[in-house]
Amino acid sequence: MSFDRSVKIAPSILSADFANFGAEIEAVEGQGADWIHVDVMDGHFVPNITFGASTCAAIRPHIKTIMDVHLMIAPVDPYIEGFAEAGADFITAHVEAGPHIHRTLQAIRGAGTKAGVALNPGTPADAVAELLDMVDLICVMTVNPGFGGQKFIDMTAKVRRLREMIGDRPIHIEIDGGVTPQTAPLVVDAGADVLVAGSAVFKGGSVTDPAPYGENIRAIRASYA
Ligand code: DX5
Ligand code: ZN
């Protein structure tokens, strides 16, 4: 299949009901989600803990689209195989998570999974300059990672720079944090094609009343159309 640079919405289950992930995923996919974004936090690299590979394996059968696993953990390497075995389509690791991001990305692809690299707001685009031929996705954090519902930090200049650096390579640019109908057009215009959205998608809805998820997704799509 040819590389798809159309804009995709990836709801983050960080904003879903943690006691009901399977039904939440089915509800949000039923309402038009393109990918499912899965935030793994260790209470060490970021100041919050979510869940690990066993939870990813448990939710995998409920995902019909793409399982996009964002690892906010350090170290990363000992856990890659577990997340790959759990069925991740993409595994994204942070540049800031250790001294050997190149080895980490080799290991992710070596495990048969697409490789992503994430950049915190304080990390420049150039940090990925030597990694462009070994990644399938670059995640530009537009909040400091750890929590949903934070205010968007404008990284559009970084996104534009990355878009130039990428050229014709088949690499997605993903935006993570504070994506809303107000902020989405800025990053889409700069060249992003995957929009993670937690609170902006899950607000107002539930598994028994999922229609707001669809309204929220359509409001984001309409903002940049
Ligand atoms: C932040 C996570 C994000 C977060 C986005 O550390 O990586 O995926 O869930 O949530 P919102 O869209 O609420 O900013
Ligand atoms: Zn994330």
What features would you describe in this structure?
31% of the residues lie in helices and 18% in strands. It is of the alpha/beta class and 225 residues long. The protein has a single domain, classed as TIM Barrel. An 8-stranded parallel β-sheet has the order 1-8-7-6-5-4-3-2. Strand 4 (90-94), helix 4 (101-110) and strand 5 (114-119) form a beta-alpha-beta unit. It is globular, with a radius of gyration of 16 Å. The structure holds D-xylitol-5-phosphate and zinc ion. Zinc ion (ZN) binds at residues 12, 37, 39, 70, 176, 196. Residues 12, 14-15, 37, 39, 70, 143, 145-146, 148-150, 176-179, 196-200 line the site of D-xylitol-5-phosphate.
Q: How would you sum up this structure in a few lines?
A:
Helix content is 31%, strand content 18%. It is an alpha/beta fold.
